[in-house]
Specification:
- It is a single chain.
- It contains five helices and ten strands; from the N terminus they run H-H-E-E-E-E-H-E-E-E-E-E-E-H-H.
- It is α+β, with helices and mostly antiparallel strands and 171 residues long.
- A hairpin with a 2-residue loop joins strand 5 and strand 6.
- It is globular and about 65 Å long.
Length: 171
Amino acid sequence: MQKKQSQILKKGSKKTEAINKKVKSTVKKKEKEEVPLPMHHFKKIKVKRGISGLGLFAGENIKKGETIVEYIGEILNKEEADKKITSQYLFEINRNKTIDGTPRYNTARYANHSCGSHGNAESDVKKGRVFFIATKNIKEGEEITYDYGEEFWEEHIKPYGCRCKKCDKNK
C-alpha cells in the first residue's frame, strides 16, 4: 500500500494536476495585475534623466486636457514660506498659502522647465491644490515639461542658462 501511495505522489494524480494548473493560472493572473497608482498620480509617470537633471516622463500616452499628477507637500503660510526662500520647490497657491514640494515623494517636482508654449503641461490650482494638466498629447516616454513662470526663471534658471529644447536650438 505504501509503495502504491508513493508512486501516485511521484506521478501525480489527476486531482493533483488540476490543483497545480489552478495554482499556476492564479499566480500568472496576479503577476499581470497592475499596481494601483498613488492617490496623487492620475497617469503613469516615471522619474529619470531629463533635459536638465532628473525629469518627469510619461509612463503611458496622455491626451491633451488630462490631469497628470498633483503637486504635493507641506502647506506653509506666508511667514514659513518666506523663511525657505532658497528652496526651488515652493509652489505659491496664493499670497498666504504655499506648497513646499521638497520631499522626493512629490514626483511632480521633477517636471522640468520649458520656455513659453514649448512645454506640454501647465499647472492648474483648484481649491488650494495644484494639478499638472497636459496641454498637448504626450506620448509614452516623452518628458513632461511646463513653463515655470517669469519669477522662477529670473531667480533660478537665468543665472545658469536655460536648457529647454527651445533655448538649446537657439545656441
